[in-house]
Please model this.
Amino acid sequence: MVISALFRKLLRDLVLWRGQIIAIGAVTACGIATFVTMQSNFESMNAALVRYYRDFAFGDIFAHSTRAPNALAHRIAALPAVQNVQTRVVEDVIADLPGRTDLAGIRLIGIPNGKQPSLNRLFLRVGRLPSPTSHDEVAISEAFAQANHLSPGSTIRIVLNGRRDTIRVVGIALSPEYVYEMRGAADIWPDSRHFGIAWMNDSALAAAFDMTGAFNDLTIRLAPGADRSATRERLDRLLAPYGSLGAYGRDEQISDRFVSNELRQLRAQAIAIPLIFLGVAAFLINAALSRLVGTQREQIAILKAFGYGNVTIALHYLTAAVLTVGIGAAAGVPIGWWMGYRLAVIYTNFFRFPHLAFHSEPRIAVVAIAISLLAGALGALWAVRAAVSLPPAEAMRALSPPVFRPTILERAGLSHAFPPMFRMLVRTIERRWVPSLFTVIALSFAVAILFVGRSTFDSVFWMMDVQFNYVSREDATLVFNRTLRSQARLDVAALPGVMEVEPFRSALVRVSNGHRSRRLAVIGVESNHTPALHRIIDRDLREIHLPAHGVVLTKALATILKVRPGSDVTLSFYEGRRPVVRRVVAAVADELVGLNVYMPIDDLQAILHEGPSISGAYVRIDPRREAAFNRAAKTTPEIAGISYRSAALEEFRKTFAESIGISATFILGFALVIAIGVVYNSGRVALSERARDLSTLRILGYSFAYTAVMLVGEQALLTLAAIPIGFLLGLTLDQALQPLYQLEYYRVPIVVAASTYVLSAGGVIVAAAITAALLTNQLYRLDIVAALKVGE
Amino acid sequence: MAVEVFHAIGLTKNYLMGEVVVRALHDVDLELYEREFVVILGPSGSGKSTLLNILGGLDVPSAGDVVFRDHRLTGATEGELTRYRREHVGFVFQFYNLIPSLTARENVELVTEIAENPLDPCTALRLVGLENRADHFPSQLSGGEQQRVAIARAIAKRPDVLLCDEPTGALDSGTGRLVLEALAEANETYGTTTVVITHNAAIAAMADRVITMSDGTVASIAGNPQRRGAAEILW
Model:
């Protein structure tokens, strides 16, 4: 292959400019790596989800009732558009795990004896399904098995409808219903140590709960293209006499909602984050290439004098840009694969698929490289335009001395307040204000990326702080297996170690405002006393006192329903005679987690036409008597579920903090790459522009140190200027990126800790210091006489 | 009767240098002929380089007209000027202007790759006596050698005109003489119309005609009946 002389020049120029090429390439690599990571994970997970739902027959509509006769299943199957119906018994029980003092909850789900259900089929990881005649065999969910070190052969003691019983694990399984294994909407994240699923023969489960010949849960598969809401309403009518708790679609199925939210987030991040990196890379290309064109004025003129056309010259510099980002992108793709794989491993902690194989389509790499080349070409446009528009004769003439004017300082009469060196610096920056401004912008991006990366975690930690230190101050939440008389609070208070009790009554409702609605639990709490454990707070973390009438909505719910204090909402209850009432929104609570409606407990009891009754309680437990409390709770048949605040916190620290730690490291690394890339680039440009002047100063007798300060000082001034702008930019990016982090259940506020300001400024200052050291070294090696010979 | 190559009338050029308007050329009339060797003399700022740039299609006059054979250079588009330079003109500059990242041979190839009927790069380098230095980078060559590479590069395309701006300005007399010999050789061998601008009045002895410029105008044009060889020039 014959390589043209012009191309050889290009390659040698690139070698000469390797420092900047590497800096730009590294920034590009970060952007491309993020894109490949996010996009590949999005596609892998999306494909895994679609395949999982299809191959394991995930249902379309779900419903729960108190007790419905099996015969009803035939009438449901006859509804239009219904393809398949799977009925079953589902019950939550308390479990006593081997070697543990605290209690776990298990959801027992019935399957046709010894067989796979027709919908929500199980993937067996290990072992087998319960044998057709067994009464105590179960397959348990993988997350629960792993968190509690359970395997086929393990036994678990449970409280079955008040009786103590033992179940035996024969298999480890996964279900499309529990990709994200949460107990319910009240939980914040999966706590697999304390909650899991066990599938057992339906007849055995029905027998234990007096449900023989009946079911309390069903799943429906619809014909493609069926009208979901119409079917849902028909199903609701059929189930209403049997204590239906309201049918709902996939969009309100907790697991699917979380997975879908995560996918949406991934897809949005796959666009937003690389955009920032590639934008910075394009900017760096522009700065470096403009400089290259500047130093090659004569060479460009010569090429033109020899008759090289504009297109050839434009392509020459465009190729330089494209090669630079191309090298970065080529490095970014495998880094993206590696990071993507790491992220996929993290995902397997939260999302359980039969096979979540990380796979990156070659198409993604091709798209990534194409995007980066586009960014490079865009970045090169300006410089290329400058090269092309350079008139050949103009380029041959010596540059006329740059025009300097008195700076703002001098015009303000302040010149004598500053030493000559400082005036030189300010004049240089002011004269070259466009490139200086661009450098400041790029540096402020580096500050902003660090800032955004850190403040995301600030927000999450703040959410946790609010949730656990201001809202959920109870040590444990007890949920009863049925509604109990109010006197039950005394029984709870009598449990060993219980120091405080705050009872509540929760009831399933569909809360709506016009066509906007959500199915959730309304929580009735005592309005006449100040809650000490579970509190309702406003945006200033002050307690909200429940009014005698009216409801308090969490902010996230108020936003979904588009209601404000003073608006009315409709509550359609699924319990009792299924009353429908309207209540005024008295206040909006600033809770960050969960879609909740609070109302006075006596109002709730009145609506449901029942006497004083409670369905659970928040308790404070003497830490020294926790074991005794747990022992007593195990033997209390009315307690169907218990969740511990400390366990939720521990789970947060262990899994979330770990994954947050990994992504924080990536973000920190990436931001430092940008910071070093930008600072090095602008310093290198400054060095080549100033080489002649600085050499002149040296020849005039100035010390090396003096010239080094001249060079580094400009970078220092620009870096300092960039820091406050970076903070502002970071806050703006936080605002812009905020919607990406919003799950329906969470409302992530923008919170910035003081340490974030320090860290984001400090990171860039460190990067600048490293660069200053590199530049000083280059300045030291500069041949001052040679530098003088080279015409600008 | 010699064939006219260039015909210029009323050439004027003003340009901005920083914040100052410089009148570089003022109402210059000029003809140049085939095969002739012309030396343009004049002090700094007399407009020599501007005139050369306009003749070479590197610059356009503010006023006036210039014609190369049947090409009218004034009013030509950038594309036409590019083609004109590619097909007809060779340049030699005072500071050689080699591409530092390319070897001597590659610098010559830069031109031969886009010319229609070029010399072999080695032949061009042999003409200037540098066939043994072909793989050296500019930084490994002396000033005189660099300028000879520049001449090889200029003549490698077999141009119709060779325009040289102070080709010996940065060289000592011995090296300068070698460079002038190379130029004379090219002029003899290929019949290339050669224009050399210089401060150095001694070089005028080599010329067929000597044009003297001052303050942007042509002060005089004198024929030289007794051309001397480069070797005979006293520096």
Strands of chain B lie at 4-17, 20-33, 37-41, 63-68, 71-72, 89-92, 161-165, 193-198, 209-214, 217-223. Chain B touches chain A at residues 17-19, 49-50, 53-54, 56, 58-59, 78-79, 82-87, 89, 91, 93, 95, 97, 99, 101-102, 106-107, 109-111, 113-115, 153, 157 (CB under 8 Å).
